[in-house]
Amino acid sequence: LGNTRTFQERVAIADECISSWGIRAPARDAIEHVAAEIFRNHGACRIEALANDTGLSMRSFQRLFQQRVGVPAKLFSRIVRFEAALKTKAVFPRLSWTHIAHKFGYADQMHMIHDFRQLSGETPTGILEQASPLFEPQIDLTAKDTAERLLL
Question: What is the pTM of this model?
């Protein structure tokens, strides 16, 4: 990812990698279960609680998660939440960034902006402008209408 020139290239590589993991398949072990739970909650979950549910010590959980997924669980959760917030804004441009920040468990809009800058080097609006072409093929108008009613 560090050798790519554009955000779109990073997203394409990350999407391909995550898709190949088959996270939506039934979890075979505790680490897969935690990763799937993070996806189901769009990254808005307490890692400590998930780690505790595995029956592993926090240190063992962190080590195993890093080995299996490739990044620490907290960073994985931040990335999933970042992507979910970004996709939501791409699909529902009328929603305010404040609404999206609260929907995905950020304390406030400034915390979300800080997270976006750390993960992408851009503001939410800046990264959305770059990423919008990537989300176009994923937008299904029927699903969009249904989801918009649920989000508002």
Answer: 0.72
The tokens for 151 are 């989000």
Residue 24 pLDDT exceeds 80:
no
Cα-based torsion angle of the residue sequence 112, 114, 117, 123 in order, rounded to the nearest 10 degrees: 60
Express each pLDDT in 72-92 by its tens digit.
Answer: 999 999 999 999 999 889 888
The count of residues in the chain is 152
